[in-house]
Write a structure and sequence with these properties.
Blueprint lengths: L1 H19 L5 H33 L18 H51 L6 H8 L1
Length: 142
Amino acid sequence: LNYSSLWFGAWLSVFYCIKVASFTRSFFIWLKQRIARLMPWMLLASCLCSFIAAIPFALDVYSVHDNFTAPLPVTNSSAMRTTRKDILRLLILLCNAGVGMPFILCVVSSVLLIQSLWIHTRRMQNNASGFRDPSLEAHMKA
């Protein structure tokens, strides 16, 4: 559930960016027209990815709570430690991948939204005439 909430927040950020930003590239125009139909599929895919990533944890595949202080004489304790370190590395990689992708999506959409709003503000200031506030003048013309 933790990863799915991260994914939901990231998709909400992407949705808001696409709806509010005013880019003129054909890809953004295409996305703006189809984002309402794509959102349920993106949320469903995120839920499935979160569920699939949680299955190994639910089955306790990544148990790293073994006691290495008293190894059995018939087993090779150094081989067991190497295997556990590899599993721990895989666990850390899986956790970082689960957090990293939504974080990247959220940061990229936020940067694009800030860039779009900055361009919009500059455009309004350049088109303003007289000493009035540019936003007030734009709202009066609208």
